[in-house]
Structure prediction request, 428 residues.
Amino acid sequence: MRSAPLPSRVLVLNSGSSSVKYQLLDMRDSSRLAVGLVERIGEESSRLKHTPLAANGGESRETAGRIADHEAALKAVAEELAKDGLGLDSPELAAIGHRVVHGGQSFTDPTVIDDSVLDEIERLIPVAPLHNPANLTGIRTAQALRPDLPQVAVFDTAFHTTMPESAARYAIDVKTADEHRIRRYGFHGTSHAYVSRETARLLGKAPDDVNVIVLHLGNGASASAVRGGRCVDTSMGLTPLEGLVMGTRSGDMDPAVIFHLMRVGGMSTDDIDTLLNKKSGLIGLCGDNDMREIRRRIDEGAEDAAPAQLAFDIYIHRLKKYIGAYYAVLGRVDAVVFTAGVGENAAPVREAAVAGLDALGLAVDGERNAVRSDEPRLVSPEGARVAVAVVPTDEELEIANQTYALVRNSNGNGNTNGQARGAGQGHA
Ligand code: ADP
Prediction:
C-alpha cells in the first residue's frame, strides 16, 4: 500500500496593524501558488488584492469595501484561496508560518506555536507595541480557522540572538537595562539570514566559511555583520529606530536630542516618537522617502535638487560608517552585499557607499553595477579581494523554508536547510 504524499504547501502570513500580506508556497519546488494583500483593515476603504499565480490564468482579483478586522480579513483570504482550489481546508496544507517581529531573547529559532509561545509573544508587547499585537491577532485568527494545523512563528529578531553581549548591550546601568529588557535585539533577521546564506552560495562557499556585511536597504534599513553564518552585530537596537538613515526614521542620534526637544522644544513623548519614526530620515531631510524620486531630483538638476543631494549624502555617509565599523568588527570580510528595495535597485547608492574604499579591497565595476536583474550577482570587478554583491531578499521564502523544515517530520527534526532546529528549542 502506498502512503499518502506528505502535504507540501505552506501559507506565510505577515499580519501588520492594518494589513495582512500572504503567500502560499509549494515547498516541493519553492514555487508561489498565490500571493496577496489585505490593506486598510477596519476602514471603509479596505481592499483585498489576490493573485493566484498557478491557477485561473494568474489573473489578479481585487475586492473593495470594509473588512472589519483581522478575522474577517483572513476569512476573505481563505475564500479567495478556495476559489482557486487552494483553500485552507486542503489536506495539502502542511503549516502556516507567521512573521513575528519581536521574539526578545526567548526565541532563537522558528518555533511551533502553543499557548506558552503565545503568552511569551504577549509578554514582549512592551518592547514591540506596534507589531506584536497585530502578529498575535493574525496567529489567533489562523488558529481558529485551522485548529489542527501546525502554526509556526518565525521571528525577525531570532537571527540576531547570536550577538555577543558586547554588541547586544547598551552601556547603561545594567540593573535598569535588565529590569526593562533594554538591549539591542535587531530586526530584519529573516532577511539577513537568507541573504547572508545566499551570498555564501553565490561565492561557492559554505556559510560557515564566509564573513559578510549585509546591507538591507528598504524603507526600513539595517546592516549586519555575519561571521561564519552567525550574526555578530546589527544596526537596529531595542526598536527599529537605531542605525542607518531610513525612509522616515532618523537612525543613530545623540539621545540628548530627545531631552532637548522635551525641555526646549516643549514636545511630548508621542510627538518625538512620531518625529523620529515617521518624519525623519530621507523624508525629513528632503520631503521624499523614495530613493527613485531623490535620484531623479539630483540627476535632473531639479530646482529642489540641493536638499535631495544633502539627504543622499547623509544616507551614504552613515552607510559608509557602518561598512567601516563592521569591517573592523569582522576583521576579515569576504563580501559586502546589498539587498531590499534600495539595495537591489539603486546602483548610485551601491557605487557611492563603497567609493574610496579601495584600500579595504572594496570597489564596484561600473558595467556590472548598472545591470538590472532579479538574480544574485557580483558587482565588484573580476578578481576583487572582497566581493560586492546584490542578492535579492525573499523573506516569505525564508519563513516558508523555516516553517516547513520544522514541521515536515512530525518529530520536529525536519531540517532541509540547516535553519530550523527543534520545535520550541529556542523557547526559554
Ligand atoms: P519595505 O519592505 O521596507 O517597505 P522595500 O524593500 O520594498 O521596503 O523598499 C522600498 C524602497 O525601495 C522604496 O521606498 C524606494 O526608496 C526603493 N526603491 C524601489 N525601487 C527602486 C528603484 N528602482 N531605484 C531606487 N530605489 C528604489
Residues 9-155+397-412 form a domain with the Nucleotidyltransferase; domain 5 fold (CATH 3.30.420.40). The pocket of adenosine-5'-diphosphate is lined by residues 218-220, 247, 289-292, 340-342, 345-346 (CB under 6 Å). Confidence is low (pLDDT under 50) at residues 411-428.
